[in-house]
Amino acid sequence: MPSIRSLFVAIATLSLALTLATAKDGRDFAGFYSLTNPSGEGGQVRVTFSAQLFNYSGADIQNAAVSVRETHPGSEVLGTYAPIELWRNGAATVLCIHLTVPQEEYQRWDARRQPAVIISYRDEQGRAWQRTAQINRRPSIPLDDPSAGQ
């Protein structure tokens, strides 16, 4: 008999997949994130931020920049991943970064507020785009996920 946690993860994954299958404009990128190994010091929290992101933009993207920002307006960049050379439409990528964030920001994330994950890229016509990924929290992200590809 499956555990309640496995059942919840399966339902959440199915729900996200069904929602994203029809997503357009504004939900071009979606996925999951996890916060692990938090340690606090002097009003700051050092944490490992992992994300499994899916490209639902309708196009293959080259040199996508992914950054994590504070959640309030005028948000400061907390960390940036190495550019994704080629991110195919419909494909997932798994990213992991160590961040130092203000205690208040970590508390917002810990209270189930979504971190601001921004994807910046240029389309085939050279136009610059910035999109916010819609992400849900998971206890952990499988860093060796064979379905994750770029």
How many domains, as an integer? 1
Which CATH architecture?
Sandwich
Shape label = globular
β-strand number: 9
Q: Give the % helix.
A: 10-25%
Tally of contiguous helical segments: 2
Biggest sheet, open or closed, and with what strands and sense?
A: 5 strands, antiparallel
Q: Which range does the strand content fall in? A: over 45%
Residue runs with pLDDT of under 50 for 5 or more positions: 14-23, 145-150
| Structural class estimated from helices and strands | alpha+beta
Order of helices and strands: HEEEEEEHEEE
CATH topology: Immunoglobulin-like
Overall CATH class: Mainly Beta
Rounded to an integer, what's the Rg over CA atoms? 16 Å
Distance between the termini: 35 Å
Average pLDDT works out at 82
Word description of this protein:
The chain is α+β, with helices and mostly antiparallel strands. Helix content is 17%, strand content 46%. It is globular. Residues 14-23 and 145-150 have low confidence and may be disordered.
